[in-house]
Design a protein that fits this description.
The protein has 152 residues and is α/β, with parallel strands linked by helices. The protein has one domain (14-148): Metalloproteases ("zincins"), catalytic domain (Collagenase (Catalytic Domain), 3-Layer(aba) Sandwich). The chain is 43% helix and 20% strand. The protein contains five helices and four strands; from the N terminus they run E-H-E-H-E-E-H-H-H. It has a four-stranded mixed sheet, sandwiched between helices.
Length: 152
């Protein structure tokens, strides 16, 4: 890019967090900034995303209510749509307790696991479905992890 070529500015994405104060792992300013950049690149037409940080009990209830599964899970996604403020990507709900267990099981930091779950949730909000797409989401997610989630 030459000095006189205008740079394309990415529109800022608003990320709304709920429940983050209950979990020390979610207070990381860089996690918020990382997610805003991720959404700006993967979903440039969207203005906002909601993230709810929760524990196992609330996650189990949501999983039972919306998926009919009476167990906790790591991440749930609820795609959004048009809103008065612009296109709303949706809501991603993460069980921080489950993320801690998975991070320990895989031998990496909780922050890395939270990024993995956020990426997974964003892809679901964009309409990807690993249960029905014959590996399309899994292949995309692997490629995006190499770019967006450094090994630690």
């Amino acid at each position: 890019m030459s000095a006189d070529t205008p740079r394309r500015r990415r529109r800022a994405v608003e990320v709304l967090h709920k429940g983050a104060g209950r979990f020390r792992e979610t207070r990381l300013a860089r996690l918020h900034a990382w997610l805003a950049e991720l959404v700006a690149e993967l979903a440039p037409g969207y203005a906002s995303l909601g993230v709810r940080w929760t524990g196992d009990r609330a996650m189990r209830e949501l999983n039972r209510r919306f998926r009919g599964v009476d167990a906790t899970t790591d991440v749930l996604s609820f795609p959004g749509g048009a809103s008065p403020e612009g296109r709303y990507l949706g809501d991603v709900v993460i069980s921080v307790a489950q993320a801690r267990r998975q991070a320990a099981e895989h031998g990496h930091a909780v922050e890395r696991e939270l990024r993995i779950l956020l990426l997974h949730g964003v892809l679901h909000c964009l309409g990807y479905d690993h249960e029905r797409d014959r590996g399309e989401m899994e292949r995309l997610e692997r490629r995006l992890r190499r770019k967006w989630i450094p090994k630690s």
